[in-house]
Write a structure and sequence with these properties.
Blueprint lengths: L18 H9 L11 H33 L1
């Protein structure tokens, strides 16, 4: 009587274990660009962009204020 699930391992075509699979994952770049953006990263980018926009607005306002003070 055969088992419901076959055993995994090297040489069985299971693609679970083995030297070649280990080598492939070792060669793969750890921070390779992914074909998607995870939610946490997306949210962080949006917050950073918003913060940068606010800082740019403050800098522009400060520059405008200093220009007016020179004219007076």
């Amino acid at each position: 009587m055969s088992k419901a699930k076959g055993k995994g391992g090297t040489g069985r075509g299971t693609d679970k274990k083995g030297w070649n699979r280990w080598q492939a994952s070792a060669k793969r770049a750890k921070n390779a660009p992914k074909p998607y953006v995870s939610k946490g990263v997306k949210k962080a980018k949006e917050e950073a962009a918003l913060k940068a926009k606010e800082e740019a607005a403050k800098a522009a306002k400060a520059a405008a204020d200093s220009d007016h003070s020179i004219e007076k």
